[in-house]
Amino acid sequence: MIKKLSKLVKSFTLSELRTGLKITAKELVNKKITVQFPEERTPISPRFRGLHALRRYPNGEERCIACKLCEAVCPANAITIESEMRDDGTRRTTMYDIDLFKCIFCGFCEEACPVDAIVETQIFDYAFESRQGSIMTKKRLLEVGSENTQVINQTKFEDAKYK
Amino acid sequence: MIEIEINGNVVKAKAGEMLIQVTDREGISVPRFCYHKKLSVVASCRMCLVDVEGAPKPQPACSTPVNEGMKVHTQNDKAKASQKAVMEFLLINHPLDCPICDQGGECELQDVAVEYGSDISRFSESKRIVPDGDIGALIQADMTRCIHCTRCVRFGLEIAGMMEMGGTGRGEHLKIEPFLKEGIQSELSGNMIDVCPVGALTSKPFRYELRSWQMHSMPNIARHDLVGSNLFVQTYKGKVKRVVSADNDLINETWISDRDRFSYEGLTHKNRLLEPQIKVQGQWQQVSWKVALDYAVKGLNSHVLKHQKVNQLGGLASSTATMEEFYLLKKILTEVGCDNIDHRLNVKNLDNVITLDSNIKLGALEKIDYALIVGANIRLEQPMINHRLRKATKKGADIDELNVMAFDFNHPLDTKNITAPNKIAPTLAGVLKSIMISNTQELPDYLLAVEVGEVANNIAAKLLNSRSSVIILGEHIINNEDASTIANLITQIAQNTNSKTLNLSITANTMSANWVGFVPQNSGMNVNTMLASDMRGFILLDIYPQYDFHDLETAVKAFTKDDTFVISLNSFKDDIVAGYSNVILPIASVYETSGTQLNINNDMQSYTAAVKAPDEVKPAWKVLKVMADLLALPSFHYADSAQVLAEIFHQPQTKHTHDENVNLTSKHHGISIIWQNSPYSIDAVLRHSNALQKTKIGQMNSAYMNQASAETLGLSADDKYLGVPVVITNTVADDCVFINANQAVNTQGQT
Amino acid sequence: MNEVCFKNLTKDQCWSLKTYEASGGYSVWRKILKGELTPEHIIDELKASGLRGRGGAGFPTGLKWSFMPRHSDGQKYVVCNSDEGEPGTCKDRDILRFNPHAVIEGMAIGGFVMNASVGYNYIRGEFMEPFKRFEGALKEAYEAGLLGQNINNSAINFDLYTHLGAGAYICGEETALLESIEGKKGQPRFKPPFPANVGLFGKPTTINNTESFASVPEIISRGGQWFADIGVENSGGCKLFSVSGHVKSPANFEVPMGIAFKDLLEMAGGIRDGAKLKAVIPGGSSTPVLTADVAMAMTMDYDGIERAGSMLGAGSVIIMDESTCMVEVLTRLAHFYYDESCGQCTPCREGTGWLYRVLKRITDGNGREGDIELLLGVQDKIMGNTICALGDAAAMPVESFLRCFREEFEYYIEHGKSMVKG
Fold it and tell me: pLDDT tens digits, residue range B207-256?
């Protein structure tokens, strides 16, 4: 009986509405935490594991030597590599595919790489328009690497001391 | 038997054997690099150092003989310290290039380093770098990785019989390298890849393609010689990527020949036949199996069966077929109602064939004390059998040859009897006569007039004096005018001296063909009769006439006749085959089909397919089975090839009866030609293996003759004979041209 | 002094057969040929003489000869090791030059005792003059009917061949020497089996040093006891010491065993330029180095030098005065072993190079903290883990140099320059 009465009083005095509006009023003056993605971005840890990239040496030579350790370590079997001897006698990949549908972004490939060729960048906002688009081919991976050389070098440098 | 104590456990051992043999048997792991069970001990890597109580220094397990009551610790501090010390030394100059090393993942150094190495190197000086040369088409050298275990050197010296690798320089500058510019050319060289514990010697055709962990390993049997070496076929995504040897002490020990190791390359050659084809109005069409088989069956029906011309159908197979294939082809023809089958395509005169049993096992071959080789270049033709003979010579066996040419053996020969083809039978008759005189036996009439020369007396004496001897008859006698006489003489010599015989005039899977009776019985026609008569249909199993027939023209003429319907089952494209066939069906090659091989030991070895044949290619036994079904023949209900084999076992084994006539009247006239496909050209898959073809053996292509023969034939050193470059050498007997060809020739076998 | 191997040294043409025979040479061999001596007698005399192998290991010669299966069937060999390659040694060279017949007679006696009818003298590749001398002496001996088949109708056969090496230190190791005679690459064999069972061409073989063989005739002719009395207990007879280094007159001295080091130094004229003694390597470069104090109190015999902490080795005494930088000496020694390792077994092949490189880095002024521990660690890992003694020989000096002169190494590493030379 008393419960019912107090509920009636509360609803007539709009107490719940006022409680709610109090927060609204408070946030009206507080600092905003929303960012305007994609114009604005939150900061990302250098250790963030996003889209993959294949790096090159400063002289333009691709780093990957087709050792297939990333392929072996990949827990999701997302990586497929084919290799052969290039004309200059070095060991190179002829195919380096990462299936992003399979990839779980664990970063093992990066850790297994003896030459720091495969890395995970900070890129996470990507989309594909077809199912085939989920396959990161060697060409695309190298492109991602070249386009983001600076960022990759910077983040790898920052993270190096913890490795 | 004595007892020793290893790590506190008492184990039994044979007095005098090396400690490492005991630990290996007991499953106690002792790291090692230079020790190899089939090679001599050098104790140079020092990795197997163990602590033997009472010895002040650690002792190498590989060269420490066991004694009664010996106490050994393989894992105590002293032993471990020594092993770790050696490991550190081995690693200081070993490059850290495991990621690009083909041995990575199957490397003995890696494996041992995991346990005995340290994660951080104390070595901060610059590492040794060794420049490499090209050491041949089969082996890739990366000598910077070499740890100087000298297994390859010892392999060359002790097993291959030619010291192609050796150490030059000393100390840190010790370099293991081939002595000669031409690199490694031995017919067993590929085994160096297997024995190399690190990535210094790796397979060249396989270079940088795959990592060891990516492949499936399937046991299989080599099909290029009479031994049937055991091996592992390593596959990736349905393709054969590499072949390595498997252990079988009764057959191939741990070795396989290069032919067996690298033939797989042919499987992916662009010349592979991938789809069934039919010839309609002179045009080839690629069709489905159904269409092709219907066409084939219709063709057989219309050309042969409908017209009650059953006896005008022939079935020919090459010696590389499996036992099941021989049997099914035979069964089809038998069921249809004829018996025209044959596999002896390269024999000129089938009334004069070699019939000789092999009655010595490979293991026994290395225990003989005398061998007589008649007409064989055994080192190249049957490398694994030659290996056993070589082992026998190392234990002191004498070997004599009766060859038309002085071949390059890798073991010492007591006497080289270079004998003209027409003198081989008389010489052997002399041997038999000499033996019978010694045994005071009554001489048969045909021996009365035989002259016994010094050579014959010599051989006879050795045969009589030997404890266990063997007479080996080889391929060069196949088309000798006295072939059957020679074989019969050998049989009699063997009987009179208690010798064994070894028939190496056959090869590949001919033993199986003989087992299932793939030769005409009763009324059946043999291959030469077939080619000479009016045939209406042929089923040809993996035949490439320009290599397989002694007389190409006659064969092609017989196949090309207008009203002859030819069904060819082949694994490789071939213009000549396409020229005469009406249907070409693509069949599986080595490692792609299940089957059975019968080797010289009479071991019946069955194998399964290691990979699925590519595209539309099917195993020949299946093709034959379906063809039989379509011909509405009963009792071809096989689900797999094992059922075929089971049926073969229930067949009465064909008994070969052969005459034992010895006819010593000379039938020779003029110069005899011995044509041989060179060792890496004997079957289709070998001919398509690129790396093998690049080797010195693969390039063998010469017509050898002496000056007198060259003059008789009007040839000089720059000429070609039957399309093959002439080599004039006095190592060839008179009246003889010995041809080792890696090419097909149109006028093969004709003078 | 100079009583055994060098007893004819001062005579004219001392290497000729005439001189040798005039001083009683070949008398023992002639007695043997007449059947007046038995192998047992010779072995007993040798055992009594206390003659120990002069090549470095010091194994009693009489005992070694008695190990040969002399009654077994088949060929046996006796081999003389004149591949004198140890830095600091030059005694065998002078024996071959000045008393080659003693070696020939010693080997012939050895051949008789061990029933070996063929002998080989393996002479170091660089010894051109000694080689010619020895060949000349061999010719004389053959011409005098002292060697060959059925010598003087005694039914004794002994043929002796000279084999010139090609200049590898490792061929001084007895089994590498055998390999070299067989025409193979000079690399030591693992033991067992020992050469006494499986030696040259797989037959029982005894290998002795030149000086050991050259001492035998004199011992047999004058009696083992006489020889033993020259020396001290456990080190019978006299020994050739090659004194080299910073002394006034470096030379070979044949002196009784047990002579004080002081006296030997005196014989060589003392330290040159009146400088002070700093260090002594008493037995060739492979033996541990000794400091001046220890050396001056030492007697030159097997036990005396061992008590001092080193080894008699081949008796090559290398004297170093105070101007010597021990770091540089060790670097030079390390380079020698790095260069001379045969490369067969891992610790020596890789370890000698490592030792040399670290030392070279130190002497180049790029030493690092921890290098001394590294050197000690590496030498410890070579020690005892190799097939032959070259590994130990390379490791031993490192340990002793670092033990005796550690402060010099520390200084070099810290300052990048030599403490002595500045």
Answer: 999 999 999 999 999 999 999 999 999 999 999 999 999 999 999 999 99
B476-507 pLDDT tens trace: 999 888 888 899 999 999 999 999 999 999 88
Q: Do A68 and B207 touch (CB under 8 A)?
A: no
Which of B442, B476, B503 represents a domain boundary (last residue)?
Answer: B503
B733 within a domain of the structure (yes/no): yes
pLDDT at residue B317 tops 60: yes
Reduced to 3 states (helix: H, G, I; strand: E, B; else coil), residue C22 is helix
Are C354 and B90 a contacting pair at CB < 8 A?
no
The pair phi, psi for residue C157, each rounded to 5°, is -115, 135
Structural domain boundaries, residue B496: 363-503
Instruction: Find the residue in A nearest to B98 (Cα).
Output: A67
Residue B458, both tokens: 């010599």
* B137-186 pLDDT, tens digit each: 999 999 999 999 999 999 999 999 988 999 999 989 999 999 888 889 99
Q: CA-to-CA distance for B578 and B563, rounded, in angstroms?
A: 16
pTM recorded for the entire structure: 0.91
How far, in Å, CA of B77 to CA of B79, rounded? 6
Angstrom distance (rounded) from CA B687 to CA C24: 79
SS3 content of chain C, % helix, strand, coil (to 5): 50, 15, 40
CA dihedral of B332, B337, B343, B346, whole degrees rounded to 10: -140
Interchain CB distance below 8 Å, B125 and C351: no
ipTM score here? 0.92
The C-alpha of B228 sits at a distance from chain C's nearest C-alpha, in angstroms, of: 37
CA A162, distance to chain mean position in Å, is 19
* Chain A contact partners (≥3 CB pairs within 8 A): B
- How far is it, in rounded angstroms, from Cα B183 to Cα B695? 10
Distance from CA of B171 to the nearest CA of A (A): 30
Instruction: Classify residue B746: in a domain, yes or no.
Output: no
Helix, strand and coil content of chain B, in percent to the nearest 5, comes to: 35, 20, 45
Sequential DSSP letters for B610-653: SSPPSTT-B-HHHHHHHHHHHTT-SS---SSHHHHHHHHHHSPP
Q: How far apart, in whole angstroms, are the C-alpha atoms of residue B157 and residue B191?
A: 13
For residue B705, the cross-strand partners are B728
Q: SS in 3 state form for B701-746?
A: CEEEECHHHHHHHCCCCCCEECCEEEEECCCECCCEEEEEECCCCC
Asked if residue B26 belongs to a domain, the reply is: yes
Tell whether B373 and B399 lie within a shared domain: yes
Q: Which tokens sit at B312?
A: 């005008």
- Distance to chain C for B223, nearest Cα, Å: 40
Q: What is the CATH number of the domain that holds B21?
A: 3.10.20.740
| B524 & B434 share domain | no
CA–CA separation, B2 and B159 (whole Å): 31
B·C CB contacts under 8 A: 98
Rg (alpha carbons) of chain B, rounded to whole number: 28
Asked if the structure places residue B665 within a domain, the reply is no
Helix (H, G, I), strand (E, B) or coil at B558: helix
Domain identity same for B43 and B114: no
The domain spanning residue B401 has which CATH number?
A: 3.40.228.10
Whether B86 and C386 lie within 8 Å, measured CB to CB: no
Residues B680 and B697: beta-carbon distance below 8 Å: yes
Q: How many CB pairs under 8 A join A and B?
A: 30
- Return d(Cα B712, Cα B735) in angstroms, integer: 9
- Examine the domain organization and report whether B628 and B550 are in the same domain: yes
Q: Quick check: C349 and B148 CB within 8 A?
A: yes
- Ramachandran area for residue B228 (φ above 0: left; ψ -120 to 50: alpha; else beta): left
- Cβ contact, residue pair B99, A65, below 8 Å: yes
Q: What is the pLDDT of residue B656?
A: 64
Q: Which of B503, B531, B566 is the last residue of a domain?
A: B503
Query: What's the domain count of chain B?
Result: 5
Instruction: Please state, in angstroms and rounded to a whole number, the distance separating the CA atoms of residues B419 and B735.
Output: 10
